[in-house]
Structures are given as structure tokens and as C-alpha cells.
Amino acid sequence: MPTLKLIGLGLSAKFVTREAIDEISKCNVVLFESYTSLSCDINLDFIKFLNKNVIIVDRKFIENNIKEIIKLLKEKEDVCIVTIGDPMIATTHVSLIVEVKDKGYNFKVIPGISVHCYIISKSMLSSYKFGKSVTITYPYNNKIDTTPYDVIYDNFIRGLHTILYLDLKEDKIMTAKEAVELLIEMEKIKKQGLISDDRIIIVGQRLGCDDEEVVALRLKEVFNYKFKEPPHIIVFPTDKLHFMEVEALKCLMK
Ligand SMILES: C[S@@+](CC[C@H](N)C(=O)[O-])C[C@H]1O[C@@H](n2cnc3c(N)ncnc32)[C@H](O)[C@@H]1O
């Protein structure tokens, strides 16, 4: 039975699992989806080394070309869609599986180490206390989407931490500084007192790379801090911290 396989590669080459390597090596056609995340050392050449039949695909292809994917399944039997991180976390790929299953084909998910789990681990905050995550996006037509403010606020007052993914466009990658600038603009609109100089955030930079860094900073320190190149991710902790979380945060402060 033809099978669509969604394969996660983890954050960098050292996290690629044996299962991912085995599946990619034997797959008849490999589509490398490179728009939902990025890695310091996983690129087209890396995947080509495992399987020569690889094509880079963009958002348009994955989101609008289900017919093409079904055609490939009919012709090639096995189709692998390969992503950085985990294929099902902070992506919309579940819709592919639902459509393929609906047409009577098989599917398989091969998880990879996700930035979501990685930053929870490296933040050392209680994994039981993370609320809904959200993405901070660049303004569109000069309009700022304040959804992230609402999500953080809702989590914050319920004693929950928030993971903030940062916008990833074809031509630009949002940095932690740009994200904090946007949060400050959101505060001017929402005026609920969430964003203030002394709030602490955790910034994960280049996670999974040899030069990764995880640092806890007060918002007032963000603009003078020398961050590494993106990708960046932010954790916005609640102020209802367990005493052990307070100690963990101190370990991440410079
Ligand atoms: C939409 S999420 C996709 C997550 C991916 N599916 C996964 O499971 O890892 C992508 C966002 O996560 C963050 N991110 C991804 N990889 C990262 C890394 N290695 N270091 C820091 N942040 C990262 C960036 O904010 C990026 O825009």
C-alpha cells in the first residue's frame, strides 16, 4: 500500500535518528520541506547524501498541491516529506495526513527532536506549566497582530509559561530583539501591563548548533544584549513560579 511518511530530522545533524536515516534512504521520492523551520547544518546536500531523489518544496507546494502528492504516491508508492525538527509540531502537516488517509493511502509519522521540547528542557521550567504557544509575526500592511499578547496574558494570569515562535519568511527571520519591539508595541495597544522593563524572558538561540545559547534576561536588558544569529525562540514565564523555577531562572541569567 502506498505510504506517505512525514519524517522529522531534529534541530541539527547530530539529532537525526537512525529511524529517520533508514526511512529516507529507502524512500522512492523525498520532498524536503524547508519553510517551517531551519537548521545550522541540515540542508539539501545533507539529505541528498542519504537519498538522491530529493526535491526542495515550498509552502505553496505543500499547502496547495495535495493532488500532486497523491499522484506521486500512486506512481512512486513511497513519498517522504522531510522537515527540520518534528514534522507535526508547530506545522499544519496533519492536513496532508487527513487527506491522504481519506483517499485510502497509508501514512507514517517519524518524530524528530522539536524546538518545542528542546527549549522546554533547556529553560528548566516545569514542563507541566506550559500553556498554549503562539507565533509573533511581522506586521502586515503596517498592522500588528496582537494575538501573541492575548495568548501570553491568558497563560500568564493562569500561572502558565508561553513559548513564542518567531516569524520565518523566505527573505527574513525574526530576531528576539524584533519580537520584543513588537511586544512593546502590543502593550501600547492593549495596555494591560503585561510588558514592562522588569519582566524576564528566556531566549534560545541557534538551538542544537554547537554555538547555541540559552539566556534569561529582563526586557530592559534585551536591547543591549549581543544575541547570536537566528533562529531564536522565546519563553515568556509566568510570575507564579515554583521556588525551584526561580533558582533555575537564576542559573540562566548572565
Ligand atoms: C514554526 S516553528 C517549527 C518547529 C518545528 N516543526 C520543530 O518541531 O522544531 C519554527 C520556529 O521555531 C524557532 N526555531 C526553530 N528552530 C530553532 C532553533 N534551532 N533555535 C532557536 N529557535 C528555533 C524559530 O522561532 C522558528 O521560526
Automatic annotation (TrEMBL):
GO molecular function list: diphthine synthase activity
Protein EC: 2.1.1.98
Pathway: Protein modification; peptidyl-diphthamide biosynthesis
List of residues binding S-adenosyl-L-methionine: 11, 86, 89, 114-115, 166, 207, 232
Entry's Gene Ontology BP terms: methylation; protein histidyl modification to diphthamide
Highest taxon, organism lineage: Archaea
Reaction catalysed by this enzyme: 2-[(3S)-amino-3-carboxypropyl]-L-histidyl-[translation elongation factor 2] + 3 S-adenosyl-L-methionine = diphthine-[translation elongation factor 2] + 3 S-adenosyl-L-homocysteine + 3 H(+)
Enzyme class: transferase
Quaternary structure and interacting proteins, as annotated: Homodimer.
HAMAP family in the record: Diphthine_synth
Function comment: S-adenosyl-L-methionine-dependent methyltransferase that catalyzes the trimethylation of the amino group of the modified target histidine residue in translation elongation factor 2 (EF-2), to form an intermediate called diphthine. The three successive methylation reactions represent the second step of diphthamide biosynthesis.
NCBIfam families registered for this protein in UniProt: dph5
Similarity annotation: Belongs to the diphthine synthase family.
The protein's name: Diphthine synthase
Source organism: Sulfurisphaera ohwakuensis
Source organism phylogeny: Archaea, Thermoproteota, Thermoprotei, Sulfolobales, Sulfolobaceae
Underlying gene: dphB
